[in-house]
Design brief:
169 residues, globular, alpha/beta, five-stranded parallel β-sheet, binds coenzyme A, Rossmann fold
């Protein structure tokens, strides 16, 4: 069995694209852990707008000034990846009561698969409770102002992707 580092956590997600909610959560994770791996899921059931390489590139740009955040892709079972990376915890955010059931199920399944890895939840900052990657894409697709809700590099890439000029320019 791999040696697990209790000061290292994995923050997994599809991050299609990453939002300020994710940025805020991982930064708060750094108050608890020495290092956090921002782990971007490669194989996901979601039909992503951004490729895995694009999602990694955006995250690397957004976290360029934070050496304690490591951006990586992962494939397959999350718990196997966390174990192979030697991380002691999975970091997850809770936005509302509606997140709880899914998170509860996932945390229990991951615990069943590996009892040495803990899932740690942080409550999402109230400023970002309403955000999701889907809602950001929907607003951007229709030219809405998403500045401040996603990192600057994501604002630019979303508009490039949709090939539209924002109405708020
Ligand atoms: N702020 C803003 N938005 C947030 C957020 C926060 N703090 N936390 C989550 N969200 C949003 C996400 O952007 C996402 O939006 P979307 O549905 O519009 O894309 C939504 O909330 C759900 O996020 P999440 O629950 O993290 O789902 P995900 O698809 O990003 O990640 C995986 C899920 C990849 C972690 C999970 O499917 C997994 O582990 N897969 C690997 C296979 C595996 O091991 N499966 C068994 C698990 S027991």
């Amino acid at each position: 069995m791999a040696e697990l580092n209790p000061r290292l956590a994995v923050y997994p997600g599809t991050f299609d694209p990453l939002t300020m909610g994710h940025v805020s959560l991982i930064k708060r994770g750094l108050c608890v852990f020495d290092e956090v791996i921002f782990a971007v899921a490669n194989s996901t059931s979601k039909n992503t707008l951004f490729s895995i390489d694009e999602r990694l590139e955006l995250a690397r740009k957004a976290f360029a000034s934070e050496p304690r955040i490591i951006v990586e892709a992962f494939d397959g079972l999350l718990i196997d990846y966390v174990n192979n990376r030697g991380a002691g915890s999975i970091l997850r955010g809770l936005r509302a009561v509606s997140d709880f059931e899914y998170e509860f199920q996932m945390a229990l399944m991951n615990r069943k698969l590996n009892r040495d890895i803990q899932t740690v939840f942080l409550i999402t900052d109230f400023k970002w409770m309403y955000l999701s990657s889907t809602i950001i894409k929907d607003v951007a697709r229709n030219g809405g102002d998403i500045r401040g809700m996603v990192p600057g590099c994501v604002v630019r890439r979303l508009f490039e992707k949709f090939g539209i000029s924002p109405t708020w320019k």
